[in-house]
Here is the input.
Amino acid sequence: MINWKNMDTLASYQELQASERVDLAAVIAGENGAERVRNYSVPMGEGLAFNYGARPVDDKILATLSKFAEEAQLTEKFAALYNGEVINTGEKRRVLHHMCRGQLGEAVIADGVDKRDFYVGEQKKIAEFANKVHSGEITNANGEKFTTVCQIGIGGSDLGPRAMYLALENWAKVNNTLKMKAAFISNVDPDDAAGVLCTLDLPHSLFVLVSKSGTTLETLTNESFVKDALTKAGLNPSNHMVAVTSETSPLAKSADYLAAFFMDDYIGGRYSSTSGVGGCVLSLAFGPEVFAQFLDGAAEADKLAKNEDLLQNPAMLDALIGVYERNVLGMQNTAVLPYSQALSRFPAHLQQLDMESNGKSVNRFGEPVSYATGPVIFGEPGTNGQHSFYQLLHQGTDIIPLQFVGFKNSQMGSDVLIQGSTSQQKLCANVAAQIVAFACGKDDENANKKFEGGRPSSIIIGEKLTPAALGALLAHFENKVMYQGFAWNLNSFDQEGVQLGKVLAKKVLAHETDGALKVYSDLLNI
Amino acid sequence: MINWKNMDTLASYQELQASERVDLAAVIAGENGAERVRNYSVPMGEGLAFNYGARPVDDKILATLSKFAEEAQLTEKFAALYNGEVINTGEKRRVLHHMCRGQLGEAVIADGVDKRDFYVGEQKKIAEFANKVHSGEITNANGEKFTTVCQIGIGGSDLGPRAMYLALENWAKVNNTLKMKAAFISNVDPDDAAGVLCTLDLPHSLFVLVSKSGTTLETLTNESFVKDALTKAGLNPSNHMVAVTSETSPLAKSADYLAAFFMDDYIGGRYSSTSGVGGCVLSLAFGPEVFAQFLDGAAEADKLAKNEDLLQNPAMLDALIGVYERNVLGMQNTAVLPYSQALSRFPAHLQQLDMESNGKSVNRFGEPVSYATGPVIFGEPGTNGQHSFYQLLHQGTDIIPLQFVGFKNSQMGSDVLIQGSTSQQKLCANVAAQIVAFACGKDDENANKKFEGGRPSSIIIGEKLTPAALGALLAHFENKVMYQGFAWNLNSFDQEGVQLGKVLAKKVLAHETDGALKVYSDLLNI
Here is the structure.
């Protein structure tokens, strides 16, 4: 029997609040610090490890976090989720994105079908389609191969797939598996579609329209933009478009598309990178085998996330240390800092994943909570960030927990030796140095050159950013966000906060406004 | 006589703390709200206006902010800055980036030269060089024109110029003034250089190496990467590279470059977009006339920033309302949300500009301050952000002030009419709707669908994102950050917080580590 309780009603939470704080600079120092860093590490799958040596916890706090995990029934809640309970209470939906990459628990039969079979079936359809495009069995009207795939989608249909594509583009190039270059159109700003379209070779471009409901206004508008451009170029749009949507959407059985691939209401947009939403564009770009490796990596991380032992469950551990930082230490933000240019848009995806899931003030029963929930997430790749906002991270008046990501090896293997070290070594040296600089600080008689230290971070270390490692990395954060939502007793799977803006925007376009809204509309010439 | 005092010693600051709070939802409502939005607007130059109707101030608080501006001598401090005083006390330097775009006050003679003449002289050299490249007078060794320019730089030598290039790329395309496509290499991650290089047509590429000191390790490493690639392609690197650096740097008189253009220590990296750092790549990409328009726009905004009347000085007004939100209302972050895809990297530039300038805990005399300083800055273009992190902005447990930017017209002029409105109208309708949704909220008996409102925002509205409008927009934020630094009594022009990481990274590369740092280095295989 699962109890869904607010965090502040739990005895272990009170114990956490009363816990003795860790002096990070002190525990990181000397040989004890070295030992701590060696020990505070847990495998994440696919050669990745989550190292929390520089997070502000110690064995005692970890023991209390373990109690908290047990008292809050966190792994039971995860089991309820993957066994198909209606976890998204607001929208009365199951939450089944894990099932796109594996069977974690019991079969889930819903709408008369085994959902795992359904998701695997759609993956197979996509793989077959992609293989036919790559082999030249499916071509444009002139019998020429498609060379580019362009995704039209917004939010979860854009950020995740785009971040994943960018993460693997260069890897695919050097591994001879970049089958098609990908582009993305998302914003309703007409300059987005117009700007992307003028870089595309239209006769050889295939567009993937992604909208679960089939009614997302931005996406349908951009589809129209693209169809206009195709028509003007003398092409028949229906030869150049596929749809990824739900079976009940208006797009599902339209003759406007070469093919349609299906998802369902149990895959939330921000959790859809491993469904057809990511699968179609990524399979076309890199081949279905690469997408399958990506899914395998995610599945491996999912299995680790089932572990009841907090210290063997990297996602739950990351989540609960984050809750400790947020609700006990009072830290408001989290920076995500990948030392990997390929992950340039990964923080933007996590921004949606995390902030849209847990940026809420009511619990899963719709009752206001009296504690802070999801933090602001932001980040850029290191070393770029070092030359930008790290000044504030080191010496600003707020302390911001940091999540570093680093890989021992580059993706492309091309490098130069300057001043006795390669670029890859410099990259890794920088992230190692930053962790210690943030944690330990440095005294100086000139206060302007003083670093207080005590600024917490963790690092995820991998061998190389491969498709499987990327899958594990993505699933880690998805599961972390899920566990934080459970801890805060939120429904992490709805997004009622986006509704009001939509309603008012419609009023503006219908000229049904008065007061301030009318003035803003007039100022913007609508 | 200027007094540099900590903010909390000022009488007007105490008055601010005691001010009656504004109920934003109440003051925005009804006809009074409409009137307020009409009135709370100030021109920013180049057709832009700063509208603060939805910021949490009223006439009384604005009057106190005016007192504060006077008591803190903000415009006198700006005058001291542009008249050449040593405002960057830590590094004992003048701060002269405004002079790249105009003469705001007295001539500044330093190092034996009139600095304005120096900056204009370098601009002319760059313009002449760019014209020769465009006309074909300067070519590759085969006499063929260069078609691409690639900037090699990091931090201020990357973020600003890159954001400005992206902001104008599509505008330039439709105005037939895209002379050369631009690319950027910044990260020491070898996959950054390798990834960009494999997209370039090397025989027709010109590289701009930007490093003020001529010693930035990331940049020199990437230069070497590029030189290797050029050499391997059978090209002589010195025919393909120019340098932007200081006259005293090791790069200044090297035969390795086709040309060298100079800046000096009085232009901070994050304030260097209007110097040769931005000027070289932007003049090559768009032509010197376009860069000159950009400077004119910045100069117009600078002039407005001199105004002693707070209500006629948009940069100072934006700054002080921000200080009020940060230090009186206790808000920790600021989101920058341009409803313009062209401004996709503008928030990343502002992140550096703001967080590196004011993310500090000591005042300009090196004494600890006892109030919060620079906030975390983050943002993505709307409408993308709406489908991502806006959930937290609307319903999260923290209130985050928002800075919207919107334009009445698109840059490319290409559009579609769907459901009775164009994409541009939809874009503008969304930002208008969001402002009101955030400020007013909406009650609902289902607490999950309730919006508390009271979430402040301002909007900068322009006709179109032209080079001049972009210049005004950039200068507005530069001057806003400067004024906030003055208010907090910081030195906004040094960045001591980036030093410790550099020192430790060198130790790692030299294998001179022990304790935790050695463990992290080992884990990362260095």
About this structure: The longest strand of chain B covers residues 333-339. The two ends of chain B are 54 Å apart (CA to CA). Chain B has a mean pLDDT of 97. Residues 496-526 of chain B form one domain.
